[in-house]
Amino acid sequence: MLDPKLVRSEPETIAAALSVRGFSLDVEKLTQLEVQRRDLQDKAQSLQSERNAYAKSMGKQIGEAKSKGEDITPLKEKGEALKKACIQAEDELSNIQQQLDSYLNAVPNIPDAEVPAGTCEDDNVEIRRWGEPRHFDFEVLDHVDLGANCGQLDFETATKITGSRFAVMRGGIARLHRALIQLMLDTHVAEHGYQEINVPYIVNSDSLFGTGQLPKFEEELFKLQDDRGFYLIPTAEVPVTNIFRDEIVDANQMPVKFTCHTPCFRSEAGSYGKDTRGMIRQHQFEKVEMVQFVKPEESTETLEKLTGHAEAILQKLGLPYKTVILCGGDLGFSSARTYDIEVWLPSQDRYREISSCSNFRDFQARRLKARWRNPETGKPELLHTLNGSGLAVGRTLVAVLENYQQADGSVTIPEVLIPYMAGQTQIG
Asked: Most buried of 33, 174, 186, 397, CB within 10 angstroms?
């Protein structure tokens, strides 16, 4: 969440910054709530001071009244009245504070100054390209047909087992899927300096609030039907980032770099009819995630490096891609700056997102109460969080199948994956 002090002191400035992403900050509502909060806070403090002062003197007053044979009931009643007034004032203050918190929890992060204006993905700005799309001298098949031809990618059986937007993989394609995961993890650990970590696939609501999925995006989540408030993870970002919830990290531990392979579960309500063919958009998919915790002054540079780590996987695989910076209107809720990496898909004759790499600055850390101890001051401060897909495994599989297809319907295995495939050089 945004710094409440900053919102209170500079609401118009914050509103202008948020307008880049198409969000309208209700300055009037916030101002009114803040005025009420201050008034109630002053009232609560005044009543508490009065109650404390009366409590100190009440014993003496009661003693004097008793010695004179006077009725002490009015003295006790005044004490009770002050107690009730304090409780009521605190309840009113708590109610206003909850209204403020509820509103601020739904306010997205402030975009970096370099984020371009725009309303949708069409307004994203290309930063660079790598590789040239392959020219095919035969009719290109999509991954669905390629998988069906070799009998190793089955959507009908998955529909029978569960429903639409799931897949069953067999044989070489199943192994290729696993090989991609191994390549990604090995590269991030051995070459990019990440520590591999394994985390739960089920999280509580506090974890989802910390990273920004709750309360705004609950409809996109799969919630377990029990009384514990558990959810299936939409991305490894959630459990990994929550490792440092309510923690203080020593400066000599930073930067902390984790990489993690997990399944991801997304309901994506409202997206039916969009990319329903094949593996582009599924309710269950796998991803290798990169998460970093860094000092505030390092997060801008770290985002560039983290994006490069994701790009390195595509380069190893020889897959053409382009990298874009997201415009304000396409920016994720918690992100201050995001690069999307889009891989070339021959069947669609276009680039499609395969990785999203984001700098959240202190937005998530404030929700998480994730801090580091600054050795210069000795005091805890909010750290900065970043993450990126390195990569989405299913979409990488799609890209490999389509870019390495042959005229006879077979698929050549990229050279870098052959050791992970026990020497197998083609599928089909």
From this structure: 397
